[in-house]
C-alpha cells in the first residue's frame, strides 16, 4: 500500500489541527490548544487506490520555526493553510512556501493552498479572488475549507495526494522539480 507523507503548514490559529482531526477522526475540535507537532495516519481510498495518509500537523507559532526544516525535508506534499478571517495568516503563506522550496531545493513541490474557516463569511478578510491569484502564481490548486462545517476537507487532502501522484508519474527521482542551475 502506498504511503503519502502530507504536511499541513500555516500560521498559528488558522485551523491546521481542526482540519487534520476532521479528516482523520471525523469530528470538529472547538478549543484551541497550540500544537508543537502531531502525526496522524489514516487508510483511505482515493481514485480506486487504497493508500495510507501520514499527516503531520505542525506548529504555526514562530517559536517552533526551527523544527520546520526537518519536516519539510521529509514531506512529499504540503497544505499551505491560512484562515479567510485573518489577513496576516494569508500574508505568511508565501514565506512558508519559500521555506519549503529552499529546504527541498526545488522550484516546484506538490502543494495545495487552503483557505480555512469559510463558514465565517461575515468575518472574511481575504477575498476568494486574491487567494486564487496567489494559487495561480504558485501553480497549485486552492480550496476554501471549513473544518467546523466539514466543507472541502477531504477534497483538499485528496487533491494533494493527486498532485503527489502526478509528480511521481513524471518519473522524477525525487518529489520535486530541481532548480535549474
TrEMBL record:
Its predominant location is membrane
Q: Which reaction does it catalyse?
A: GTP + H2O = GDP + phosphate + H(+)
Keyword Lipoprotein, does the record have it?
yes
Q: Which UniProt keywords apply?
A: Cell membrane, GTP-binding, Hydrolase, Lipoprotein, Membrane, Methylation, Nucleotide-binding, Prenylation
Might you give the EC number(s) for this enzyme?
Answer: 3.6.5.2
The record's GO molecular-function terms, alphabetically, read:
G protein activity; GTP binding
Instruction: Please give the superkingdom of this protein's source.
Output: Eukaryota
Kindly give the membrane topology term recorded for this protein.
Answer: Lipid-anchor
Where it sits in the cell: the answer is:
Cell membrane
Q: State whether keyword GTP-binding applies.
A: yes
GO terms for biological process, alphabetical: signal transduction
GO cellular component, alphabetical, reads: plasma membrane
Any Pfam family: Ras
Gene3D superfamilies attached to this UniProt entry: P-loop containing nucleotide triphosphate hydrolases
User: Which enzyme class, named as a word?
Assistant: hydrolase
The job of this chain, per UniProt, is described as: Ras proteins bind GDP/GTP and possess intrinsic GTPase activity.
Which family is this sequence assigned to? Answer: Belongs to the small GTPase superfamily. Ras family.
Output this protein's name. small monomeric GTPase
